[in-house]
Specification:
globular; 19 helices; 6-stranded mixed beta sheet; alpha+beta
Length: 378
């Protein structure tokens, strides 16, 4: 039985953090995880099989593990006759009678550039089918992967979801034009669905469904439990797409009501942010109205003011400046957000405000100006 050695550097790629990329804000921590399909596409050759005979090399923690090849998913003539790879890393094999399965991704030099533990025949079929959309536009890719979101194979369903998690908010909304609501109708009623998936699927139901589908989302808004609160951004955004008048009325009533649960209000804010990022031109008016309500409630004022500063939107300048000194807005985080906004804002009333404040609180203004200059690299 022949073996093929791989460099330690090759397998080290498995443990590098994913590169920054636009991500769907509905998908929570999943947006920061590394999806396997793009790594699979980059691989020159792919082999999979079972792990055996792990060996440690002294006390360094380094070692080797055999990969007994069962299948060549992407072949290369140089792999002919090779039945075992020697992976230069110690990988645990608890029971030789039930060895773990492993997929190895190889570059054009047959060096290992990535991999994943465990796989199923369904996952291998899913990876092979994904080749059809390699190099396609994002909306075409997402339309393909949407067919697998309700897969009975957990690894396939998760990998399909990851393709949406790593798309931008705008790309997710753009892709909805080519999707059908049937799968999302089923998924949003699954009580075992984790909040991140519920958020995405509820939004996609709103983006693809009919007015009747609002009835599937409305119960989550009427009495949101802990799971619904965590998924409220997608649920509300989807509901707004189906029934905009009712959806925006609900959002504005919640944001402006300090008696509402903070988590319900925060989920509502995230829904508005998502829509504004996905379609800034279409939802600018509603975004401004929501921000105005938040500015007047101390608990959320710093969030709205910070969003407006970063977007360089100055429509609410007078309203923001009018909150300074109010008892509801004296928390340092709110006060600092307000003064930062005034320092950055180019309007005359903001400059006048800063000049007057500099006389009363010179240290505060100086420190915030220094923070802003540092952030801008000055």
């Amino acid at each position: 039985m022949r073996g093929l050695g791989l460099s330690v550097f090759g397998l080290a790629v498995l443990f590098l953090p994913p590169s920054p990329a636009p991500a769907c804000s509905l998908c929570g921590p999943y947006a920061g995880k590394s999806a396997f399909v793009p790594q699979y596409w980059q691989a020159h050759a792919v082999v999979c099989g079972t792990l055996a005979n792990p060996k440690l090399d002294g006390n360094t923690g380094a070692g080797t593990t055999e990969l007994h090849i069962d299948k060549r998913v992407k072949d290369d003539p140089r792999l002919k006759g090779i039945n075992v790879f020697i992976l230069p890393r110690y990988l645990t094999v608890l029971s030789p009678k039930e060895p773990p399965r492993f997929i190895a991704l190889l570059d054009d030099k047959l060096q290992c550039i990535g991999g994943r533990a465990d796989y199923s025949p369904a996952l291998l079929d899913f990876l092979a089918a994904s080749e059809a959309v390699k190099g396609k536009l994002r909306d075409e890719k997402l339309a393909h992967f949407a067919k697998y979101l309700d897969s009975a194979d957990a690894s396939v369903a998760e990998e399909a979801f990851m393709q949406f998690a790593q798309a931008s908010d705008r790309e997710v909304l753009d892709a909805a034009k080519s999707l059908k609501p049937d799968v999302f109708r089923k998924l949003v009623q699954d009580q075992k669905l984790v909040p991140e998936r519920l958020a995405l699927f509820a939004f996609l139901l709103g983006a693809t469904g009919t007015p009747a589908d609002a009835d599937l989302l409305a119960p989550y808004l009427r009495k949101p439990d802990d799971r619904a609160c965590k998924a409220l951004d997608g649920i509300l955004a989807g509901y707004i797409l189906i029934k905009p008048k009712e959806g925006w009325a609900w959002a504005h009533s919640v944001v402006g009501d300090p008696k509402q649960s903070f988590f319900v209000r925060w989920g509502t804010v995230k829904a508005v942010r998502f829509l504004q990022r996905a379609r800034p031109e279409q939802y600018h008016k509603e975004f401004l109205h929501t921000a105005g309500l938040m500015i007047q409630t101390g608990e959320l004022a710093d969030v709205a003011i910070g969003d407006l500063e970063r977007a360089q939107i100055w429509d609410h300048t007078k309203l923001i400046l009018a909150q300074y000194g109010k008892k509801s807005h004296t928390a340092p985080i709110v006060r600092n957000a307000l003064v930062r906004y005034a320092i950055v804002c180019p309007l005359p009333e903001a400059r006048d405000f800063v000049n007057q404040l500099r006389q009363r609180e010179p240290k505060l203004v100086r420190e915030l100006e220094q923070d802003i200059a540092f952030e801008q690299g000055k």
